[in-house]
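Long-time lurker, first post. I've been practising inverse folding by hand and with some scripts of my own, and I keep getting stuck on stretches where the structure tokens seem ambiguous. Below is the full token string for one chain I'm working on. Before anyone asks, I'm not after the true native sequence, just a reasonable design that respects the backbone. If someone could post their per-position residues I'd love to compare against what I wrote down in my notebook.
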């Protein structure tokens, strides 16, 4: 990571940070609820709600408001908190090939307690020109007050999006291949070492399923930490099977069962600073 030059950092790291604040507003409104339990050392129990509401148009821009809250209860092993929250509020707008969003996240044991537990940010994206009807270059600017790299600095980014009957590509962070029939395969990358691979089966009718695996990372800003520049990181390798059923009225019911492999939590100013690292045993989750 330290061998990458600044231009590569801007290209690789800014776009996923921008995606954190959401993409263009989705048409209509939506809501998603979730609940999960897991074994292993942390014995996590999570419940959450995410919503998005279309606000209508102001001039040429279509606006939407989004929010989410997830509660995470754990065993409190070692210095890992027994209770954490992941809270977010966002406002997004889109006008053709131009979109922007404002957001305030607080993944903490005391969300929105102060600026030290809150990540304020914005994202601006513009389509630069289309290559036929399938490919388009994207350029933009992202800011995050609590980003673990280039913290507090607006970061420009450039990417490329390509969509066809068989491929969806967002260079270099996401590739989806639809070879035909009911199957699709996807790869998502979060620099430098975090990723997921998935195979999805979605035939005609109400039923479908997905198999996904990878390595995930979560970042928390704990209240009262001695150095407000530090974060708590939770790194979890996983594999999951997700059967789903589409219901009348645009509802979808999804179950999930899988395994968290042995992971770790640690503190640091950046995700690759491994201070006070503690290894943890994994376990089944559903």
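-- Answer (accepted) --
I ran through it position by position. Result:
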């Amino acid at each position: 990571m330290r061998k990458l030059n600044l231009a590569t950092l801007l290209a690789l790291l800014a776009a996923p940070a921008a995606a954190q604040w959401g993409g263009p507003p989705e048409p209509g409104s939506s809501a998603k609820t979730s609940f999960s339990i897991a074994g292993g050392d942390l014995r996590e129990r999570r419940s959450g709600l995410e919503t998005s509401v279309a606000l209508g148009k102001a001039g040429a821009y279509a606006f939407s408001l989004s929010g989410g809250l997830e509660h995470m209860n754990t065993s409190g092993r070692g210095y890992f908190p027994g209770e954490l929250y992941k809270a977010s509020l966002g406002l997004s707008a889109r006008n053709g090939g131009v979109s922007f969003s404002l957001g305030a996240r607080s993944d903490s044991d005391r969300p929105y307690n102060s600026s030290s537990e809150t990540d304020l940010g914005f994202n601006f994206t513009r389509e630069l020109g289309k290559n036929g009807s399938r490919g388009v270059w994207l350029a933009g600017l992202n800011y995050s007050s609590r980003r673990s790299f280039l913290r507090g600095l607006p970061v420009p980014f450039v990417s490329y999006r390509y969509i066809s009957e068989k491929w969806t590509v967002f260079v270099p962070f996401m590739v989806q291949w639809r070879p035909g029939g009911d199957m699709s395969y996807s790869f998502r990358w979060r620099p430098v070492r975090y990723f997921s691979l998935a195979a999805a089966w979605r035939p005609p009718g109400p039923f479908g399923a997905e198999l996904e695996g990878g390595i995930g990372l979560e970042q928390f800003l704990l209240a009262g930490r001695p150095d407000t520049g530090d974060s708590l990181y939770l790194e979890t390798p996983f594999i999951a099977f997700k059967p789903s059923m589409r219901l009348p009225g645009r509802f979808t019911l999804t179950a999930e069962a899988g395994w968290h492999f042995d992971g770790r939590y640690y503190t640091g100013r950046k995700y690759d600073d491994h201070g006070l690292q503690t290894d943890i045993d994994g376990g089944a989750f559903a």
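A couple of notes from the structure itself: The chain has one helix and 19 strands. Residues 6-285 form one domain. Happy to go over any region you disagree with.
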